[in-house]
């Protein structure tokens, strides 16, 4: 069964600090992995998308890494800002079944001043 | 390019009623997916439409249905509403059926409250 597990479930950090969110998956065969940021009550916004051949992708202060061998991904946020407070969702798509996506439950990040 | 739009943004219905939600994808995108998001369940996949055909379906009862029109706009219908149907319903569009390296672009969602 395809699964995506994210950790931690929630995280509180001080403004200016760095943090790393984890995503482990069992989706196979792998097609791509996406990280989304979702503000409360809004739709998710794409941060990065990585295919099998990519192991790092950056988007401003957000850097995602992918280890396809261990089926792990991380999202590193540098110099956090109050506006980074949101839910971060990891999504993995398979190359079969018309690419059905499996969603993680998300990590809720709170950045405090 | 305009983003994904969803209407209405907020909706209050009574148990037993039915509801229709609408989604207009980004121009040129032919795939529309629907998701239900509740605090305890996260994002749950409902179904995906591509070129007016349902390509994928999640594990939801038959009360949840959808369709896609020739202009790629999509509607989702929920009949005989239950209290547990209260959720944020999100629509996402993509240039092609999911699985490629294409991103999904989400709309702002429709907040449905069933009383």
**Structural class of the secondary structure composition of chain B?**
mainly beta
**Low-pLDDT residue intervals, each spanning 5 or more residues of chain A:** none
Class by SSE composition of chain A: mainly beta
DSSP, total strands of chain B: 11
> In angstroms, what separates the terminal alpha carbons of chain B?
37 Å
Describe the sheet with the most strands of chain B. Answer: 7 strands, mixed
Question: What percentage of residues of chain A falls in helices of 4 or more residues?
Answer: under 10%
What does this structure look like?
Helices cover 0% and strands 58% of the residues of chain A. Chain A has 113 residues and is mostly beta strands. The N and C termini of chain A lie far apart (41 Å). The mean pLDDT of chain A is 93. Chain B is mainly beta and 115 residues long. Chain B contains no helices and 11 strands. In chain B, the strands form 2 sheets. In chain B, strands 2, 4, 5, 6, 9, 10 and 11 form a 7-stranded mixed sheet that branches. Chain B is globular and about 35 Å long. The chains are: A mainly beta (113), B mainly beta (115). At the A-B interface, strand 4, strand 5 and strand 9 of A face strand 5, strand 9 and strand 10 of B.
């Amino acid at each position: 069964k395809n699964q995506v597990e994210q950790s931690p479930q929630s995280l509180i950090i001080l403004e200016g600090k760095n943090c790393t969110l984890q995503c482990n998956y069992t989706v196979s065969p792998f097609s791509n992995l996406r990280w989304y940021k979702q503000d409360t009550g809004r739709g998710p916004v794409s941060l990065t998308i990585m295919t099998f051949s990519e192991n790092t992708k950056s988007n401003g202060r957000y850097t995602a890494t992918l280890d396809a061998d261990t089926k792990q991904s991380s999202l590193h946020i540098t110099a956090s800002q109050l506006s980074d407070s949101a839910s971060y969702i990891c999504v993995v798509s398979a190359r079969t079944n018309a690419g059905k996506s499996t969603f993680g439950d998300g990590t809720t990040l709170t950045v405090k001043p | 390019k305009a983003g994904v739009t969803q209407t209405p943004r907020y909706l209050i219905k009574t148990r037993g009623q039915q509801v229709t939600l609408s989604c207009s994808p980004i121009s040129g995108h032919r795939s529309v997916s629907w998701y239900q998001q509740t605090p305890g369940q996260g994002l749950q996949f409902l179904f995906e439409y591509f070129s007016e055909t349902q390509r994928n379906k999640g594990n939801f009862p038959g009360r949840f249905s959808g369709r896609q029109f020739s202009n790629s706009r999509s509607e989702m219908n929920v009949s005989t509403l239950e209290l547990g149907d209260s959720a944020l319903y999100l629509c996402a569009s993509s240039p092609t059926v999911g699985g490629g390296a294409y991103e999904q672009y989400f709309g702002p969602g429709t907040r449905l409250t069933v009383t």
